[in-house]
């Protein structure tokens, strides 16, 4: 009975329970790519060297990550190499599948969630059309949750980004850099906030605030 329950356990359920019980969650080291130069290097790896991305995911799972992230930045990186939208969507699929493969390889299926990280400020080709197409890919591939990253709650592109993801019917969480005014806003809005580690390899990087949208 126990093994069956474990086998059918949803990774999102595990993350949700940790959130409710106020247990600190660990986001993988990829979430710490803050500077543009770091992001571009990481994203090109997803396009040109997926094996290195898989190994990083496996390393983070071994280190105890609760969530593996893969990002819209990868879609932007594909756009740098190709003008064909199909290439961008293929990169999004690859990112999700590599994360799941790493979790399975470390025998932590049902324990570690895959989050597709959407940067609300990223300038994707074709604007809303690309986001709508991406939403269809996400609905088909089924990551466990969507992590929308924003610099503040007042970021102009945030509402449109979240709205474009409604069709996925996936849980959407908001990620903000930790700052007092942002925490205050989340509390005033009645949303629960949690302090989240940015990852085993993110030495010296600051924490972020996560809230369920």
UniProtKB/TrEMBL annotation:
One of its GO terms (molecular function) is methyltransferase activity. Keywords: Methyltransferase, Transferase. InterPro entries: HCY_dom, HCY_dom_sf. Transmembrane segments: none annotated. SUPFAM superfamilies: Homocysteine S-methyltransferase. GO terms for biological process: methylation. The keyword DNA repair does not apply. Pfam families: S-methyl_trans. Residues 42-176 form the Hcy-binding domain. The keyword Methyltransferase applies. This is Homocysteine S-methyltransferase family protein.
């Amino acid at each position: 009975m126990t093994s069956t329950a474990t086998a059918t356990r949803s990774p999102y359920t595990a993350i949700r329970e940790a959130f409710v019980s106020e247990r600190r969650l660990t986001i993988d080291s990829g979430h710490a790519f803050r500077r543009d130069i770091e992001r571009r290097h990481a994203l090109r790896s997803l396009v040109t060297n997926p094996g290195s991305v898989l190994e990083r995911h496996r390393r983070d799972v071994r280190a105890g990550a609760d969530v593996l992230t893969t990002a819209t930045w990868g879609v932007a990186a594909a756009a740098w190499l190709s003008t064909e939208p199909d290439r961008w969507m293929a990169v999004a699929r690859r990112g999700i599948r590599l994360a799941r493969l790493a979790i399975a390889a470390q025998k932590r299926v049902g324990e570690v969630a895959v989050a597709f990280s959407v940067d609300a400020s990223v300038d994707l080709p074709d604007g809303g059309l690309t986001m709508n197409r991406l939403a269809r890919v996400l609905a088909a591939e089924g990551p466990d949750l969507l992590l929308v990253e924003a610099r503040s709650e007042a970021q102009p592109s945030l509402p449109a980004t979240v709205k474009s993801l409604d069709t996925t019917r996936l849980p959407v969480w908001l990620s903000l850099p930790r700052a007092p005014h942002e925490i205050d806003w989340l509390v005033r809005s009645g949303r629960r906030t949690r302090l989240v580690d940015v990852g085993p390899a993110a030495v010296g990087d600051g924490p972020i605030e996560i809230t369920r949208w």
